[in-house]
Amino acid sequence: MEKGENDTMKLDMAAMKRELEAVKRELSLTRRELQARGKEKSVEHKSRALDVATEMRRSHGERKEIWERIHRASHSTSLSFRGLSGLSNAILGHISTMTHLERLDLTGCSGFSAVGIKHLYDGLSRLELLTLNRTSISDSSLEGIGALRSLQQLNLEYTDVTDAGLAHLVNLPSLTSLELLGCRDVTSAGIVHVGRLRSLQDLILRRTRVASPGMAHVGQLTGLRHFDLGETEVTDDGLQHLTSLTKLTVLALPCGITDAGMVCVGRLQSIHCLNLEEATRVTHEGLRHLTSLTHLSFFAAPAGMGDAGIEEIKRLTDLVSLGLENATVTKRGLKGLRSLPHLKHVKASGPGLQRMVKATLPGVEADACTIL
Hints:
Layout: H1 3-27, H2 31-72, E1 78-80, H3 89-95, E2 103-105, H4 114-123, E3 129-131, E4 153-155, H5 163-166, E5 177-179, H6 188-194, E6 202-204, H7 215-218, E7 226-228, H8 236-239, E8 250-252, H9 262-265, E9 273-275, H10 284-287, E10 298-300, H11 307-313, E11 321-324, H12 331-334, E12 345-348, H13 351-360, E13 365-367
């Protein structure tokens, strides 16, 4: 057996032994205690012991994998446990001793609590990326996160974090990326705290309950480059606060935006990727304001757009990729895109529209190319 495999086995066996001893202590009851509780309690205890033992056997392979990953990462700066259960507080405590770690991904993991997460804050002073997507963390789990002074990227997608939890992030001076996709308890009140993260460059608020008042605080993040507002409650009134974001290059807007909001979008001269797919209330009249975006190369048009919209889009001469979700365009309308010298991809929903694009625009790929 090679030395590395032998070390892994020793580490795994030692860890499993400690966990087994913990289970034994948890389940131990003296004969006198059992008699005092009566036959019913005894049966209940035996049933619980059987459940725990079954779970231990079922999860043995996964726990072994956890410890093997830890061993392999002993000299690495990156560690991922994506989708693994059984990630106990004790294991997170061990990970906190790996002071060289710079990237840690716990997406979809379970078995730990706020106590375990706080172990990480105590030991991983070099951590630059922490991903907690789809875990059971809540506001209390973020207490003390300010100790991670080197943290640059924090991913909290689909967690129970609320506005109150975001207050704990204000002591992260190096944070450049914050992802809150699907955090349904985050509102404009929480964006007050986000607005204090002046180093932010990437902010994902998609599927939160943030509305227009929160945009006043986003407007203070003058270094912001990537901003996703899809499926939020933001309307035209909120967009006026974003005109200060002169470095913004990627922007996705929600369904509450209309032609009036396009006036503000047209002032964001650095935009090169714009997603209006949800903004179905934007018409060809609103699209006229986009002609000032001379760097726009990736554009997802409002879903259901017709030939009148194509007439405005053909003025965007730097376009490389165009999204036409559920478009009602005709062949005659599509011919207007032939004047776009750099157009390479068209995201066309449905086989009928894809065939029409291929027939009308030779050399242009009609597929599901990604706009954002």
